[in-house]
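Exercise 3.2. Students should predict the tertiary structure of the chain below and write it as structure tokens, then compare their answer with the key that follows.

Predict this chain's 3D structure.
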Amino acid sequence: MVPDRGPEVPGTVPPWLQPFDRIASPVRAAWQGGAPVPDALNRMPGAAVRFVPHSALPADAAYEQFIFDTGTVPTRDNLHDFFNGLVWMRYPQVKRQLNALQARAIAETGVGAVRGPLRDAITLFDENGAVLFAPEPLRQALAARDWRRLFVELRPLWQQAQLVLFGHALLEKLESPRKPITAHVYQAQYAIDSVADVDAWLADALDPVHLATKPFLPLPVLGVPGWWPENENFCFYDDSLVFRSARPA
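Answer key:
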């Protein structure tokens, strides 16, 4: 059973979950009420896939290929798969694109003991990815891992930025927030107006050749202004074990 977050009180949903809350709250309530996670997810209208018990996955079938072939997602009764379901419902075009790229790679090279660069990058983003829509100075500071500039000197610019979490393992980790939790960030064009726009834009932007290069940047998510009370004290960013300098070229 999922841990109880307590009663839903306006303003208590953490910032990283707010894009999911319209879906998450009823699904979580159904799970807490005794419904298996796949059933709780299937109660929500408009899903691009159906969720089935993990036992529906044949022992000799590749998980991603099974989803591609059947349009169903094997789902366990745990937080990891709960959040995977939420991402499928919130960003269906992106999930379908990632799944199609995985299935194509499997068809070309087989499952294998090693995923290869493309499948490895897809898995990394699917599990731990985020997308940053931000003004150019913020994007440059992140690329340079200039944390003081990113989070302190340019702090007012974060009002014009949006960090969208995509990785379901990342969302799971944030159920118990810790300072070192770090997303693999895909930097995006500035100015996206809605979740639907995010879904459509990102699905189109996920080019397999580019993805295989792992074009991600590390971002400790609790450093985002407004996401964690402790970062109001700028000494928060002095922890070099979390906010690490870029490696020498």
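Discussion points: Residues 92-109 form the longest helix (18 residues). Strands lie at 50-53, 72-75, 129-133, 162-165, 182-187, 217-220.
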